[in-house]
Amino acid sequence: IHMGNLQALSYVFRFNQILRVRSEECKRILELIKNYAVFKTSSNATQHPIKLQLKIVLYRLGSSGDGQSVRKVASLFYVSDRGTIKNVIQRIFKAILRLKNEFLYWPNERERLKIASATAKEMPGCVGYIDGSEIKFAEASVMQHEIYSRKRNIL
């Protein structure tokens, strides 16, 4: 294997590991948000490149514990920890939330049937999935037999 290929593979792996998305997905999100007004400044104040802002937010969303602390994120991306991270997060979220109606919607009856049949073995009758986090209910539900986790546990 050529050493350049190993370096490229290492970069791809590291990119995915740090930002929790593939490079192509990051580029797609960037394309969707880059022209939003929140990234245009009318004053002399400059912003970090939108690509860097997106990477900061993706990293922070994919981190847990003290790995997502403002100081650590600022150090990792060589930006100030005096409001920069907060401002970056606000701008990126404003831009992404602007697209919510384009990507977030409840499927119509035909789409629901298609989704439910495609996942019938893993999650019978399930139409939507979130991020895989399990939340145990404090009290048993009337439909307890219908609420399963991704590991097939009754929640």
Write the layout of secondary structure elements.
Elements: H1 3-19, H2 23-33, H3 50-61, H4 70-77, H5 84-97, H6 100-103, H7 109-118
Helix pairs in contact: 2-3, 3-5
Describe the structure.
- With 155 residues, the chain is mostly helical.
- The chain has helices at residues 3-19, 23-33, 50-61, 70-77, 84-97, 100-103, 109-118.
- Helix 2 crosses helix 3 (50-61) and helix 3 (50-61) packs across helix 5.
- It starts with a helix and ends in a 37-residue tail after the last helix.
Structural class: mainly alpha
Looking at the structure, what is the overall shape?
A: globular
Number of strands: 0
Give the strand content: under 5%
Order of helices and strands: HHHHHHH
Oligomeric state: single chain
The gyration radius over C-alpha positions equals 20 Å
* Structure annotation, total helices: 7
Descriptive labels:
single chain, 155 residues, mainly alpha, 7 helices
Give a quick summary of the entry.
With 155 residues, the chain is mainly alpha-helical. The chain has 7 helices and no strands. The longest helix is centred in the first third of the chain and has 17 residues, at 3-19.
